[in-house]
Design brief:
single chain; 7-stranded mixed sheet; 5-stranded antiparallel sheet; binds biotin
Length: about 260
């Protein structure tokens, strides 16, 4: 039995209006993010989704590699063409929220959360990561590429990932249909995009509730160094900045990749 992504089943069940209607599948590609980055402006549209069963040069945050077993997981990138760049970081968090909701929906009752800035974790182990890149034309955003890797059916992680990573299969004890999960995820992302586009506060509240450490006193890592002081995590604002209350009662804001968070 082939474990390749079942394109016809996926397309048959696709119920979005625009997200994934232009869907491009590759058995192998260096990186779905890189593939999209290289396309000309008119050969990619708002809502294009590119999925590969195998990436030979998958990329993660902080110039790391994203290496996982072929045919077992979801590795894909989505293209969004927002009309303005304000608050685009919130879109990455909105996608992370959709992954959290999708896992919650599996109803096996475990804690799943967003680890600032771009991971989704189940019981402190990473199950998904997001890598967002943008293409600008002058000072105007032309496209946003949100690359998403979700560990679905992989059963073993080697090296340091052994301690740090998990998959839906490991967490739930059963295999999952990637086509079905992707359909659900795209539906959710399409809906959250509309909330983001209308700047509806409900989106920020939903994200905040799922960020690890929300409402708690946490420690910060700035430029790789753990800070002495602790801060209370107040959540994100409309611009996607993370707001923190310091011990003196002042509010400080941090951009997407400036800081990392240590929760107790
Ligand atoms: C991270 O956690 O470091 C981010 C990982 C992002 C991986 C995805 S897989 C699909 C897309 N293509 C890539 O090369 N990277 C992203």
């Amino acid at each position: 039995m082939s474990n390749l992504f079942d394109l016809s089943s996926f397309k048959h069940h696709l119920s979005t209006h625009w997200l994934g209607q232009d869907f491009r599948y590759f058995e192998t590609v260096p990186s779905t993010n890189t593939y999209i980055k290289k396309l000309t402006a008119d050969s990619v549209q708002h809502g294009t989704v590119v999925l590969a069963d195998n990436q030979t040069r998958g990329r993660g945050q902080y110039q790391r590699e994203w290496e996982i077993d072929p045919n077992e997981n979801l590795t894909f990138s989505i293209v969004l063409k927002p009309t303005e760049a304000t608050g685009i970081h919130t879109l990455t968090l909105a996608c992370a929220l959709c992954i959290v909701e999708m896992v919650d929906n599996l109803e096996y009752g475990t804690q799943v959360s967003i680890k600032w800035p771009n991971d989704v974790r189940i019981k402190n182990k990473k199950v998904a990561g997001l890598l967002t890149e943008s293409v600008f034309l002058g000072n105007k955003i032309e496209r946003l590429i949100i690359g998403i890797g979700i560990n679905i059916n992989q059963r073993k992680f080697s090296g340091e990932l052994h301690q740090k990573a998990t998959s839906l299969r490991l967490a739930t004890g059963r295999r999952h249909l990637r086509e079905q999960l992707l359909n659900e995820l795209l539906r959710r992302i399409e809906f959250k995009y509309h909330l983001w586009n209308r700047k509806l506060p409900v989106l920020y509240r939903q994200i905040n509730r799922k960020i690890e450490g929300y409402g708690q006193w946490i420690r910060l890592v700035v430029d790789g160094k753990v800070q002495e002081d602790s801060y209370k995590l107040l959540g994100i604002n409309e611009a996607g900045m993370l707001l923190l209350l310091n011990r003196e009662g002042g509010i400080e804001s941090f951009s997407y990749e400036q800081i990392r968070i240590i929760t107790n």
